[in-house]
Amino acid sequence: MGFLTTKSNDPDTRLGWGERIGYGVGATGWNMINGIIGTFLTVYFTNVALLDAAVISTLIAVSKVFDGASDLIVGNIVDRTNSKYGKARVWLLRMCIPFAAAVLLLFWVPSGFPSALKYVYVFIMYNLVNTVCLTFMQVPYYSLISLISRNGEERGMLGNVQQIFQTLGNVIINAVFVTLLARFSSSLTTENTQAGYTGAILCVVIVMVILVLITVFSTKERVVEDKEEKAASKGDEVKPLVAIKALLTNKYWVIMFFAMLVVFFVIIFYSIGGVYYALYIFKDMGQISWMNNSISIAQFAIMFATPFFMKKFGKRWIYAAGMLVMTLGFAGFGLFGTSKAVMILCNVLKGCGLGMSGGMAMGIVADTITYGQLKSGINAVGMGNAGTSAAQKLGLGLGQAVFGWVMSGAGFKGEYDVMGIAQPETVITAIKFMYNWIPAVMCCIIFIIMAVSFNLDRDLAKLRAEKGIEE
Predict the structure, then answer these.
(1) How far, CA to CA in Å, does 25 sit from each of 22, 45, 156, 234, 350?
(2) Read out DSSP for 268-290?
(3) Percent of the chain beyond pLDDT 90?
(4) At the fourth CATH level, which superfamily is domain 239-471?
(5) Are 356 and 445 in contact (CB under 8 A)?
(6) How far apart are CA 323 and CA 349, in angstroms?
(7) Which of 361, 245, 342, 359 is nearest to 308 (CA)?
(8) Domain parsing of the chain, residue ranges
(9) For residue 50, is it left (φ>0), alpha (ψ between -120 and 50) or beta?
(10) How far apart are CA 125 and CA 114, in angstroms?
């Protein structure tokens, strides 16, 4: 794959499109797995493995505590790594096959195990996949942006390429996964069988490994610290507790931590909720394709326009507008979700809003960290970014857990499908409420906070002026 790599070793060089795309396809690979776990894992556990939704949700919630902490550990490991493949690519090379094997095993709960042993198996495999393997894929992959190039414009370009290819992973899974389940299913009446999941997952993980290997062999780590830089960086190290205290007294960083947790809580609600909505309201699991892809494709498209909006209106107002548009999309689906055309339009609004806010999020986080550093004198860049990564994971885990708890409380039983018994009406009500109204309320809250209280640009400009720093 070396022919895709830009030949120059200069860390400030402009990269060719071969290397940019080579970097991006890795995100498609691991995010296809993310999409399957976020959308289909709970359905697999309840409808195929026939496990209790409340117990599964509790195990996932507990696991997310470990998952959030693993980012800091793996980040430290990557920083200390030295190999012929550099600091980051070597971990993608080492972990892509173990990651594939772990995902296969996560979706293969042994049917002959006693119930208690099944839950132990799920807890171990879920943590192996998410806390260990996925973290060892994501942290090195994100670190590659800083290691491939020192050029600010190139890093921005790589970030945009990564977002586009990451979203493409969701689009692919939304389009083909249910079809793969049906293709490999051992039943003519349902896609939710062990054979269906085993065959479908095997196809996806093979593609994932190939795409990640393309990234490994089509990129080059050009940015290397020399001895003087290493000595200087050691002198500037901030103790973790000091950095955490500085972040918690930085009101804008705290708001963004909360906002990102909420957004990812909402994402998991509509991802999981969409499958149950298709199964029990539309009576056809295949409907999940247009439901999720109308969101993902709109998100994909709007990302090409958000940089232009940002220059005109600023990051804060684009983020706030995104939350408002998402609120309208969720509320509209709940109020007028009887026409397919209207439902697609509402999901397009959700996708546009998510793309607008998501495209601004990491830039705003960087600004909050700069604000905190100017105000307190403490450089908390590493902990600040690790904290927002943890917020994303906590949002996903908490959303997955709450969804399962509510479903269990509403009377959902996966066994009813096997026995041909309809789920209680309370389950249908719960699905509609969680798919539409909880996300609408949460997005509205973030919109109000951003529109009313988030004066970061003004306060950051004041601090810079006081310290004589040019923007």
Answers:
(1) 6, 29, 16, 34, 25
(2) HHHHHHHHHHHHHTSS-GGGHHH
(3) 35
(4) MFS general substrate transporter like domains (1.20.1250.20)
(5) no
(6) 10
(7) 359
(8) 15-217, 239-471
(9) left
(10) 16
User: Which two structure tokens, joined as six digits, stand for 330?
Assistant: 């969720």
| pLDDT tens digit sequence for 217-252 | 999 888 775 444 444 444 455 677 787 788 888 888
CATH topology for the 15-217 domain: Growth Hormone; Chain: A; (1.20.1250)
pLDDT tens column, 29-85: 998 998 899 888 988 998 899 998 889 888 888 887 777 778 778 877 877 788 888
DSSP string, 111-168: TTS-HHHHHHHHHHHHHIIIIIIIHHHHHHHHHHHHHH---HHHHHHHHHHHHHHHHH
Nearest to 438 by CA among 348, 334, 339: 334
Count of beta carbons in the 10 Å neighbourhood of residue 359: 25
Domains 15-217 and 239-471 share a fold: yes
Q: Would you put residue 22 in left (φ > 0), alpha (ψ -120 to 50) or beta? A: alpha
Give the alpha-carbon dihedral of 447, 450, 451, 454, to 10 degrees: 170
Other C-beta atoms within 10 Å of 247: how many?
22
* d(C-alpha 230, C-alpha 236), whole Å: 10
Token digits of residue 329 = 């999309």
